Amino acid sequence: MPIIDLRSDTVTQPTEEMREAMARAEVGDDVYGEDPTVNALEELAAQKVGKERALFVPSGTMGNLVAVLTHTQRGDEVLLEAESHIYYYEVGGLSAVAGTIPRLIQGDHGWISPEQLEAHIRPRDLHFPPPRLLCLENTHNRAGGRAFTPEQITRTCAVARRYGLKIHLDGARIFNASVALGVDARALTRDVDSVMFCLSKGLSAPVGSILAGEREFIERARKARKMLGGGMRQAGVLAACGIIALETMIPRLAEDHRRARMLATGLARIPGLSVDVEGVQTNIVLVEIEGPDGDAREVVQRLRSFGILVNAVGKRTIRLVTHRHITDEDVEKTLEAFSAATKSL
Ligand SMILES: *Cc1c(COP(=O)(O)O)cnc(C)c1O
User: What domains, with CATH codes, occur in the chain?
Assistant: First the structure.
């Protein structure tokens, strides 16, 4: 039985062109700064998000952690959205490794408004940890891939600036936001000090993420990456895929968004399921199982018997992520399987 894997866009396989580029890539020792392919990727990546410099890191989690380590000192307060990936899914690294204390803000569908941010910034006081860093997320994973506009970002960042906070953007899917909103990624990153984005998700590279920022910030970040064990050697074989990802894979994200909408529209028609169709702006669909005994895990198990892989992200919530390997036909099959799997709930 063919498998339709909607668990994440991280399951995307490298393209043929990427595999050929890996074989041909010119490489050197990147810890010495001598891998020409890594250097080329970092230059291209910095330019894509309008920053002076960029750093190739093994994962998005490490990119975010390096950013927190570089912006803060132990005991500093980091303000972030209550459902943010950095808080929810990164093993508490901001505390366990960076020694910072999170201050959570319950946003509106993942977004922290200027008013909310201001209400959570405490005055200077002997008793309080110093607020140092604001982390934003675009698109917002647990909010179902919501994309936030340049205007929203500018307004919230203006408050952060007024209080002297540094700003890091977890932009794992920043190009999904850029494509969905029809704006250049640079309009989404101009107000922040640093941005992380993933090459290994919808862009289909096998491994790797980028952290970008000012030259001096990236110099210090390089040291933090080394400390965490993220200094890679002939990493050009991976960076070669990242270059292809950035040069060729961004516009096609629109197809993933179209299929996510198809999925959402179809799921909303199935009795016992509820979907905020208008809220599906990029490649993530959240579907709620209704009814008194609605159990997402049970539905996930039943779908598996039809060859459909999805993740439960809450007691009643299932997440579906579209990507390069999901076709229109897969969307149809997924809708049929959902109908069958939820019939007797
Ligand atoms: C996937 C993701 C990350 C982390 O990326 P990994 O490469 O899986 O460590 C960070 N932030 C968000 C919003 C993500 O979706």
Answer: 13-248 (3.40.640.10), 252-341 (3.90.1150.10)
